[in-house]
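chain below, 254 aa
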Amino acid sequence: MEFAEIFNEVNMVGFLLLFFRFAGLFLAVPIFNHKNIPINIKATMAFFFTVFFYSSMPAPTIDINIPTIVIAILGELILGLSVGIVLQLAYNVITFAGGQISYMMGFSMASAIDPQSGVSMPIISQFLSLLGLMVLLSLNLHHWILLFVARTLDTVPLGGFIITKNFFHYIMHAASNMFMVGFMIAFPVIALSLLADTIFGMLMKTMPQFNLLVIGFPIKIMVAFSVLIATLTAIMLVLKGQVQEAFNMLGTFF
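prediction:
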């Protein structure tokens, strides 16, 4: 009798909604949304954690009918995608900065397929992106996500997620902040590259035999790499702060 009660109609709907909550997170949150992780592995992880959290899952309060269940499933997927958007905007700060640095170094045409996002990306952006991924792993972001799910089970009932107006306001703020912080990260390289261009321009005026393509570009790349190496620790600290701030803001939405 007890075994039959565990698999009653309400608990099975709750299990399904909890599964889609994890599925939405694994599809959108950095680290879990890596393109090299097969979709069947993500589905297996979602199923495993659903079983793990099943005992602490509150019973859903929605009506048990097909239209309501479909809407509830969409709501759970939107919850996971919303969390992923917030964290991805914070994470994309370094990829945007890497694009600006690549452009100033003359590497804008030197791009490759990013293994994480699956799109073509400048080499510097890809380097910073992979380094940032290791920083997120060192911060135990994957553990934070699981703790966040455990918290939302108490604050957001299964099938009861509703996007608030504050969420859209924060997304607009986070998008503008991504550009501002990205320019701030890339500013040392941009400033010294512009200074190097000014010096090279003065040299070409005083020394017409100065060959910018042969001498100037290698020096400019060397200076940019030196500045990038010197500021790499600060860049990762900025990324850490952005991700932590974004994660703390999630508590105000869900």
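The first strand starts at residue 111 and ends at 113. The chain has one domain: 2-250.
thats it, cya
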